[in-house]
Amino acid sequence: MNYIVVDLEWNQSPHGKGTELKEIPFEIIEVGAVKVDENNKCISEFHEYIYPTVYSELHHHTQELLQIDRQRLELAAPFPDVIKRFFDWCGEEFMFCTWGAMDLTELQRNLRYYNLGELLVGPIRFYDIQKLFSLQFDDKKNAHTLEYAVDYMNLEKHNSFHSAIHDARYTVEVFIRLERELRRNFSIDSFCNPKTKNEEIYVVFDTYSKYISREFDTKEQAIEDRDVKGSVCYLCGKKAAKKIKWFSSNTKNYYCLAYCRTHGYMKGKIRMKKTETGKVYAIKVLKLVDEEGANAIKDKQRLLRIKRKERRNRKRPL
User: Dihedral of the CA atoms 166, 109, 52, 76 (nearest 10)?
Assistant: First the structure.
């Protein structure tokens, strides 16, 4: 299997927030990628500009950041032509690698806009190199820029950043120097989310499990589903007893605390994600925690109860 290390640059509405096209808020105008084999050898590269058709005028931020010559874009091919050549170049068996998670989401959005969604059917398993870098060097506490990683690893800077092909090359240099065992920690892009129970995703990693549910009409229906609200220990497969049932800190996130007799406390977090059709699906992560981590969940619930009580008291008439 090959690794496709890809970087995308895009434009947006030049007229400011609220003027963008909902279906495609960011229009891809440059694709840069490097193909790497399983021995970390760079096989070939792909680089093309794309003629903008949604936002023909460049946003001032795009011009400043990317410094793309407008004449290059005028001579470029449209998105469908470029992206078909790109996927032909990718080949049959490959895994995407990106710096951060946004590139693949916007790629799928652009594909959908041009009715080319069949070229990339999600959910997509990929390597988020930004995440892997953070896992190796600071325990996933920060989301660093690509330039920070290049400086941290003392890599040579041959070219400027914020060029798709330059950033793809820099990302490759970081990727091939990371510990190989980190490649067990792939990410999942759920822009094309599971629609049915058969499409649901459940993955166990070294220190946590992730579950991506099917669609529901409402978040209330989702949180009441047995699979969504269940708490099974990902190490032994046994049901963990709830110490604190699911509670919500806002409209999107839910938390719980469970206890496995064999492996101890387990923290649960659910993020409710809304689809473009107005439905919802849940992303649940269960992770073993120590006594301190368990107390943090207890404190979160206690403080939430205090705040809710204070709000109710303020609303009561004098």
Answer: 50
